[in-house]
Amino acid sequence: MKELVVVAHEFRAAGAAVKPKMPTEPIWGDFLKQDALAMSVWSSQRVSYVAFYNAYEAFLVDCAKLALGVGHLRPTDKDFKQALRSGFGKDISTPCWSHHEINNARLVRHALSHADGRETTDLKRQRHGVKVLDGKLQIVPHDNHNLLRLLRTGVEALVDATAADPRFA
Question: Are the CB atoms for 50 and 58 separated by under 8 Å?
Fold first, then answer.
């Protein structure tokens, strides 16, 4: 974790030291006037949200398979939830899976993947924080930032539980 913090700090410092040679805002504004580009930027936010969540879920499932010593496992399996409760030496089910914000992210991902971005009945029952326009979820950079912050908490809990376990080396 210390090394990650150091590298992240160095990366940000290097990025801050770079000065663009031309103003990017007017160019970007002109590009966004083109409907095709504007649509692709908007769509990329949805695609990114789904990809971030799917990568997290796949990582969590792979770790649970190692914890249980099984070759096949799905997040809907009873064994999956049991692995999160007892397979890691301590219960990581809440920070990694059953926390209400993780559940909301899962429901948003489901709506984007399987309901064309429409707010599903289950999602409507939640305070998910994603803007809805004409019944469709409007994923913006802020939503992706919040998702990454949330998933980072789950990954950190998982890493903390597995760091000393040789099965995860």
Answer: no
Q: What is the DSSP string of 63-95?
A: HHHHHHT-S---TTSHHHHHHHHHTTSS--HII
Mapped onto helix, strand or coil, the DSSP state of residue 165 is: coil
Closest to 95 measured CA to CA, from 50, 56, 52: 56
Residue 55: the pLDDT is 97
pLDDT top residue among 94 and 26: 94
Query: C-alpha angle with apex 101: 148 to 136, nearest 5 degrees?
Result: 85
State the pLDDT at residue 53: 97
**Tokens 């993947």 identify what position?**
113
pLDDT digits (tens, 9 = 90+) for 101-113: 999 999 999 999 9
d(CA 121, CA 47): 22
Rg (CA), the chain: 19
Whole-model pTM over 0.90: no
Check: CB of residue 147 under 8 Å from CB of residue 49.
yes
CA-CA distance, 106 to 93, in Å (whole number)? 14
3-state helix, strand, coil split of the chain in percent (to 5) is 70, 5, 25
Please report, in angstroms and rounded to a whole number, the separation of the first and last CA atoms in the chain.
Answer: 16
